[in-house]
Amino acid sequence: MLSRLNDNLVELINLIYLKFCADFPAKEKVSLDDVFNTSTKTFNVNENKNINIWHFSIPNFDCNKQPQCESTNSIKSNKKKVNSFGVLVSKLNPNFKRIWAPNLDFYSNYSPIASPEFIQINGNSQEEQALIFCILNSEEYTDFLVSNTTGSTNSRQRVKPKIAVSYIIPFDLDKKKGLESLVSPILKDIQQREFENTKLQIIKDTVLNKYF
After folding, report:
1. Distances from the Cα of 171 to the Cαs of 60, 87, 130, 131, in angstroms?
2. Beta strands in 110-165 (DSSP E)
3. What is the pTM of this model?
4. Residue of 161, 154, 59 whose CA lies nearest to 115
5. Side-chain-facing half-sphere of 23: CA atoms under 13 Å
6. What is the mean pLDDT of the chain?
């Protein structure tokens, strides 16, 4: 039920975004990396042994779009640190859309880390995070990624991070605060429900492990 409601809210964001782009088309060519910070620090597993983390991985996304609380002892390779107000987009086989815009206030008890298969684009506020989510979740951006993949099969197809952040923003940036004010409250609702789903899954797993 919560997931279905979130799907409807994401569709509402998409409709608002399409209308906004049509009403306020871009005045000049400005790319994602011209506007937003795209740098990401590495989380070194060997330097962080025997601690719990929130793992934003491709398998976790594909299973139920819920980060897993895991021990670093079970992780074999370095990951990316997830930034506040960051949005994650998978560079792996972009035909399957994987966009994650977590509210890190909900995951503050452990360090949030992400698979290196994710590209991260960072905002400076929750409003900018919502703006980035609009762009990355659009069909136009997905088509851009798909048209720039390398590799011959689904399991091997990837888009280079440098290409992924070169996408030209299709709306007038002078008007962006208007879009932010519309979509930011909707994204907050989505993030709240995603975390509620995560908590419910943790409770379910705890009960199953204890009694079965």
Report:
1. 33, 19, 15, 11
2. 111-114, 118-122, 149-150, 158-159
3. 0.92
4. 59
5. 11
6. 92
